[in-house]
Amino acid sequence: MRSLLPPPAALAALFLLTSCASYKPPVSVPPKPLPAEYAVRCPIPPPAPAKEVDAVAVALKELYDLYGVCAGRMVNLLDWMGGRR
Asked: Is pLDDT larger for residue 9 or for residue 22?
């Protein structure tokens, strides 16, 4: 008795051709140009001060300020990339 099901090779070819016929290539959108304010690099930290306590405290405060500037730029850049700005 002959089977009513088509052979597996025919099924594979049928599914492959069907999927290729319905495939649409992705549309690529060129990236937005980066604003000039985000292309500026973070300032370089100052060199380590002498071993005086006051100079170390001042240098540490300046380093924290630089970190705040860079962290703020990063948040702004991520917001811009996400389209929230």
From this structure: 9
3-state SS, one letter per residue, for the chain: CCCCCCCHHHHHHHHHHHHHHHCCCCCCCCCCCCCHHHCCCCCCCCCCCCCCHHHHHHHHHHHHHHHHHHHHHHHHHHHHHHCCC
- The Cα 14–Cα 5 span in angstroms is 13
With pLDDT > 70 as the criterion, what percentage of the chain qualifies?
A: 81
- DSSP letter for 65, please: H
Instruction: Pull the structure tokens for residue 15.
Output: 């599914």
State how far the Cα of 62 lies from the Cα of 56, in Å rounded to an integer. 10
Structure tokens at 8: 């597996």
Collapsed DSSP state (helix, strand, coil) of residue 6: coil
